[in-house]
């Protein structure tokens, strides 16, 4: 296996040949190295398809305005997340503050100590890897959430505009009723939600339906589709066909019921 293919790429942005020589000697065994000697070349190499994992930038480079280089790197879509470590002379105490103001992740002062340089680089490469993985996962979660919302919106539209009634029954009470079901039995959604089944079915139908549902829960292989009756708000009886499924409801189960008005079908039987 060619281990060089798995090396992280570092970009050294420094016009000082001696600095470059020292850093390459320290880092070449474990990293691939590219060198830029001015600001324009730094931006170009950082923006190339072969994006560096980290940039070592001399904050006193005579051939570049370092603050402008940092600004452009942090504004670039493909370069904004590349950590920058400033290479600084051991001068004033404000070196650290100045570096952070420029958008740098860290700074290293001369003379360069091999153990320190390598440790700082590995730390920031690891931090970048964690951040990139985190941002990728967040993006994936956003996509999953949006996809679930789209699916939920589609189902909601289908349920709301369905021709047949759809109702969810849990603990003998209505937990959901679509507009078609409300229209069928003449009650508003507000009147139905939380109402007991006996509000719109007779005692006889209540016993028949709940016994059948309990048998389904117990594992008996009964047909899901069967005929029943519901009671309209005006007291009239409506012949219906029920298609009942057992579905999860929180930590328990509920009945998802599709209700089809079959009054016309039943009337035709007497006409034939």
What does this protein look like?
It is a single chain. This protein starts with 7 loop residues before the first strand and ends with a helix. A five-stranded parallel beta sheet has the order 2-1-3-4-5, sandwiched between helices. Strands 7-6-10-9-8 form a five-stranded antiparallel beta sheet, with helices on both faces. Helix 1 links the parallel strand 1 (about 10-15) and strand 2 (about 30-35). It folds into two domains: about 5-135, Rossmann fold (3-Layer(aba) Sandwich), CATH 3.40.50; about 160-270, Beta-Lactamase (2-Layer Sandwich). The model has no long low-confidence stretch (mean pLDDT about 85). The protein contains nine helices and ten strands. It is about 45% helix and about 25% strand. The relative contact order is 0.08. The chain is rod-shaped, with a radius of gyration of 36 Å. With about 270 residues, it is of the alpha/beta class.
Between the first and last Cα atoms, what is the distance in angstroms?
83 Å
Helix and strand sequence: EHEHEHEHEHEEHHHEEEH
Strand line-up of the largest beta sheet: 2-1-3-4-5
CATH architecture of the largest domain: 3-Layer(aba) Sandwich
Tell me the fraction of residues in β-strands, as a range. Answer: 15-25%
CATH superfamily membership of the largest domain, which one? Answer: Response regulator
């Amino acid at each position: 296996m060619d281990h060089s293919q798995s090396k992280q790429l570092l970009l050294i942005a420094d016009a000082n040949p001696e600095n470059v020589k020292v850093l390459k000697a320290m880092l070449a065994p474990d990293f691939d190295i590219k060198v830029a000697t001015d600001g324009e070349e730094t931006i170009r190499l950082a923006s190339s398809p072969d994006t560096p994992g980290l940039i070592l930038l001399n904050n006193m480079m005579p051939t570049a305005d370092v603050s402008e280089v940092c600004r452009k790197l942090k504004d670039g879509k493909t370069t904004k997340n590349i950590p920058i470590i400033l290479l600084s002379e051991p001068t004033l105490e404000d070196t650290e503050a100045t570096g952070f103001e420029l958008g740098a992740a860290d700074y290293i002062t001369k003379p360069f100590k091999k153990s320190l340089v390598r440790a700082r680089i590995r730390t920031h490469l690891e931090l970048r890897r964690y951040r990139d993985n985190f941002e990728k996962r967040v993006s994936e979660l956003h996509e999953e959430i949006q996809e679930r919302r789209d699916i939920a919106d589609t189902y909601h539209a289908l349920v709301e505009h369905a021709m047949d009634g759809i109702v969810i029954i849990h603990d003998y009470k209505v937990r959901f009723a679509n507009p078609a079901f409300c229209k069928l039995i003449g009650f508003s959604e507000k009147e139905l939600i939380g109402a007991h089944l006996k509000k719109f079915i007779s005692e006889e139908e209540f016993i028949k339906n709940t016994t059948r549902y309990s048998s389904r829960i117990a594992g008996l292989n009964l047909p899901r589709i069967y005929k029943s009756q519901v009671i309209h708000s005006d007291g009239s009886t409506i012949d219906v066909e029920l298609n009942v499924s057992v579905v999860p409801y929180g930590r328990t189960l509920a009945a998802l019921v599709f209700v089809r008005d079959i009054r016309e079908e039943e009337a035709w039987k007497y006409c034939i």
